[in-house]
Design brief:
disordered N terminus, alpha/beta, 455 residues, disordered C terminus, globular
């Protein structure tokens, strides 16, 4: 009977099809957690076809299962996808990823539905938000949806820093939509470009102000470690020092040298106690070779067909590096709480004068009650010139979810005050369930119990 009781308790984590459930990841302080276990992003950027031939790799079961077999060989726990088709179903591939213990870090924008650097105001409009929210609707149902990127490299030089308020408004709106639709709190944040001019300003801007508008994490691309190098020579030590007091998780949304052969000598340091108190891992750029330009040529595999890829030399080298990764024990030196950042002041490298944000377009507020409806996918007409844009500035704190599912009114141009608490409380309390790392334990125990567990 004791064996049967154990079997019954283990069955709780088995889905209807016998697939192992995956632990939803949350944020506490400046780190990610699966239950009480520190979670480090160990993954790859995944977009076969690249930006020039945008296609959704997890809407095609044949393609995703081809690649999941490779992901398992690499030992990754996360893939980032830049473009998906929100008009298509994703259950088969999301379930297959979950069965492999792999999470999804998802960009909510597509080439036609995104914030324009040069025209952020007009491109922040109701049709755009409808499509973003439709993407949230599609992926919030999966526990292995790790996080949402509200923007990617929108700010990639000094002039484009002027677009920051609109990017931050999208983060606020997604968080409010998730809250008002009563979805599982999924972290929302920004992926910054690999530029030194205003990386730190961008990070603090995304983490300043009231809790409703602050990011839940900050990620940035970093190609600066090129072998032979070191923690200091690569400038990684300086970046860790610059963010040592940052109060939300940081990870690398893209990394890997683009100047010399990749030996992945940076990986032991990335997952060591030199960085674990500040960083939460990173994503290798990128899985597929997309061409012969500086960044495109560094793919881990080359696609031969829908069912076959050829592993390139980088694949085995990365596989070995990942196999040897052993993150620090416990919480790795992470902080459990921290203050909001101080908003950066306008300067020669940062063109935002204050911390006010555009208010949500009035017609987009209805989605909080009704839902977004069907996504337009990759064939829609586009939103960047669609009209129905914001017509004013929001009151600080007006983006908090409400019990009635409606957005509080507010068009004041007053500045948001800095909060002393961690970002949105709903995103700060870890849940309790089995982490993916227990999968092997379950298999072992089920073997010992024999027929006591029925799959």
């Amino acid at each position: 009977m004791k064996g049967l009781a154990t079997a019954a308790s283990l069955a709780v984590i088995l889905g209807a099809t016998g697939s192992l459930a995956i632990q939803a990841v949350t944020v506490k302080g400046n780190a990610f957690y699966a239950g009480n276990e520190r979670f480090y992003v160990k993954g790859v950027d995944y977009q076969p076809g690249g930006s020039s031939d945008a296609a959704d790799p997890i809407a095609d079961e044949t393609v995703c299962k081809r690649d999941i077999a490779e992901f398992k060989k690499l030992g990754v726990n996360t893939v980032r996808i830049y473009t998906i088709d929100n008009s298509k179903p994703h259950k088969a591939c999301m379930d297959a990823l979950a069965d492999a213990g792999i999470y999804l870090a998802l960009d909510v924008n597509t080439p036609k539905y995104s914030i324009r650097q040069d025209k952020p105001g007009p491109s922040y409009n109701t049709p755009y938000l409808q499509n973003v929210f439709a993407t949230i609707d599609e992926f919030q149902k999966y526990d292995n949806t790790l996080l949402f990127f509200s923007g990617n490299e929108v700010i990639n030089n000094v002039p484009t820093s002027a677009a920051a308020p609109w990017v931050k408004a999208v983060t606020r709106d997604i968080k409010q939509y998730i809250g008002n639709r009563k979805y599982r709190p999924i972290p929302v944040g920004y992926s910054a470009a690999d530029i030194d001019d205003n990386r730190v300003e961008t990070a603090h801007y995304m983490n300043c102000g009231t809790d409703d508008e602050r990011s839940d994490f900050f990620a940035f691309n970093d190609y600066s470690w090129c072998a032979p190098s070191s923690f200091t020579t690569s400038t990684w030590s300086q970046k860790v020092d610059a963010f040592k007091d940052y109060s939300i998780p940081i990870f690398l949304s893209e990394y890997g040298c683009t100047k010399t052969a990749r030996t992945w000598e940076e990986i032991p340091t990335l997952y060591s106690d030199k960085m674990s108190g500040v960083y939460s891992g990173g994503l290798v750029y990128e899985y597929t070779k997309e061409g012969d330009s500086v960044q495109q040529k560094f793919g881990l595999v080359e696609v031969e067909s829908d069912t076959k890829v050829t592993e390139r030399p980088d694949f085995a080298t990365l596989q070995k590096a990942f196999d040897n990764v052993q993150p620090p024990s416990g919480n790795g030196g992470a902080k459990t709480s921290g203050a909001a950042s101080t908003c950066p002041t306008k300067s020669g490298t940062w063109l935002v004068a204050d911390d006010k944000l555009p208010k949500m377009p009035d017609n987009a507020k209805k989605f909080f009650k009704s839902g977004a409806g069907q996504g337009v996918g990759l064939t829609g007409p586009g939103s960047q010139e669609a009209g129905d844009e914001s017509d004013g500035f929001a009151t600080a704190g007006s983006g908090a979810p409400t019990a009635t599912g409606t957005v509080p009114s507010g068009t004041s141009t007053g500045s948001a005050s800095s909060s002393s608490s961690s970002a949105a409380t709903a995103f700060r309390v870890p849940t309790f369930a089995f982490a993916p790392t227990v999968c092997g334990m379950v298999v072992l125990i089920s073997s010992l119990l024999g027929g006591a567990i029925l799959l």
